[in-house]
């Protein structure tokens, strides 16, 4: 297995990840019922986010907390939900890639989920 090296690798990772996550019994409903995620429009934005995060290419310009905060106002997102997101993300990375960048992606996913959960919990006083 090769490491995550290009935008195409990020696109592949995210496509596979979202195919799994929208069907996930624990958190899939966030993407299919709570926000009815439009993958055609969402994937390029989230790929920009990950390209910025992993390759330090400034592609993403936005606030990733805001849409998640809005989603959590509709249906509260708990630590267990974020943990599940991280688990599926890491499993997807491990199924496709191996190497330093793959490990960094998994570490960043954990960090992002932790920060997002704390900010949402603080903002909504869960």
Could you write a compact summary of the structure shown?
With 126 residues, the protein is an all-alpha fold. It contains 6 helices and no strands. The protein has one domain: Globins (Globin-like).
Overview of the structural elements:
It is a single chain. By secondary structure, the chain is mainly alpha-helical. It has one domain: Orthogonal Bundle (Globin-like). It is built from six helices and no strands. The longest helix is centred in the last third of the chain and has 25 residues, at 100-124. It is globular and about 40 Å long. The N and C termini lie far apart (41 Å). The model has no long low-confidence stretch (mean pLDDT 93). This is Group III truncated hemoglobin. It comes from Reichenbachiella carrageenanivorans.
Give the distance, in angstroms, between the N- and C-terminal Cα atoms: 41 Å
Q: Can you tell me the CATH superfamily?
A: Globins
Strand content: under 5%
The CATH architecture is: Orthogonal Bundle
Tally of extended strands? Answer: 0
CATH class: Mainly Alpha
Describe the global form.
globular
Return residue spans where pLDDT drops below 50 for at least 5 consecutive residues: none
Compute the CA-based radius of gyration.
Answer: 14 Å
Which characteristics define this entry?
126 residues, globular, mainly alpha, Globin-like, 6 helices
Topology diagram in text:
Elements: H1 7-21, H2 28-34, H3 39-55, H4 65-74, H5 79-96, H6 100-124
Helix pairs in contact: 1-3, 1-5, 4-6, 5-6
């Amino acid at each position: 297995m090769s490491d995550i090296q290009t935008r195409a690798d990020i696109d592949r990772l995210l496509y596979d990840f979202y195919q799994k996550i929208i069907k996930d019994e624990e958190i899939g409903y966030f993407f299919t019922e709570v926000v009815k995620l439009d993958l055609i429009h969402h994937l390029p934005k989230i790929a920009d986010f990950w390209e910025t995060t992993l390759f330090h290419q400034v592609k993403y310009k936005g606030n990733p907390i805001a849409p998640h905060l809005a989603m959590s106002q509709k249906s509260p997102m708990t630590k267990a939900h974020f943990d599940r997101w991280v688990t599926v993300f890491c499993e997807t990375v491990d199924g496709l890639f191996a190497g330093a960048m793959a490990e960094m992606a998994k570490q960043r996913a954990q960090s992002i989920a932790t920060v997002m959960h704390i900010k949402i919990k603080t903002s909504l006083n869960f």
